[in-house]
Design goal:
By secondary structure, the chain is of the alpha+beta class. The chain folds into 2 domains: 84 residues; 85 residues, 2-Layer Sandwich (Alpha-Beta Plaits). Helices cover 58% and strands 23% of the residues. β1 and β2 form a beta hairpin. α1 runs antiparallel to α2.
Length: 184
């Protein structure tokens, strides 16, 4: 196709394309900052709520302990403390999907493209593991070799399985891989 536009018009079109790209990246960065702000704000409210709850429990303990129902209060505080400990244990043993996603993103080579990524939480030997599978596209087989090497080099990945069908075509490869992510 022959481009018959004069050079000045070509430069104007290139400048407009550059401006569009800057605007798009600016909007993406703005959304990322807003999301980060909202996450930090929710953490602040969560922590302040926990502090307020503890202060209320201490105040209740002081008020009730002065009365004749000291034993009932001690039992109630023990039950509340046990519940708080169970909740704390629950939150400490959660798997971070963002951490797993960053591990996968770091392992992906520049030439490869990710199509789907699935996570499934499984308990194995008393330890939570993310059973994961991903599908994607690689323009050449070398990109798959890089992906396999990156997954193998990272200590967080275990039981990496590339089906033999991934290696048949030398170019334009739609691949799949399964692996486990152990963050603990």
């Amino acid at each position: 196709m022959i481009n018959l536009l004069p050079p000045a018009e070509k430069r104007i079109l290139e400048a407009e394309n550059g401006l569009r790209l800057v605007v798009i990246w600016g909007v993406i960065a703005l959304f990322a900052f807003v999301a980060l702000f909202l996450i930090l704000l929710s953490i602040k409210f969560y922590v302040s709520g926990m502090v307020d709850a503890r202060e209320i429990l201490v105040r209740l303990e002081e008020e009730r302990f002065a009365g004749s129902q000291a034993q009932d209060l001690t039992d109630e505080i023990g039950a509340i403390n046990a519940e708080i400990n169970r909740l704390e244990f629950f939150y400490q043993n959660q798997i971070s999907f963002s951490g797993a996603l960053s591990l996968v993103a770091a392992a992906m080579p520049n030439q490869a493209r990710l199509n789907t990524l699935y996570f499934n939480i499984q308990n194995e030997d008393g330890e939570q593991t993310l059973k994961s599978s991903l599908t994607g596209y690689a323009p050449v087989r070398e990109a798959l070799f890089v992906l396999k090497k990156n997954l193998g080099d990272e200590s967080g990945f275990r039981d990496i399985d590339f089906p033999p069908s991934n290696w048949v075509k030398p170019a334009d490869i739609n691949f799949s891989v399964t692996f486990n992510i152990n963050e603990h």
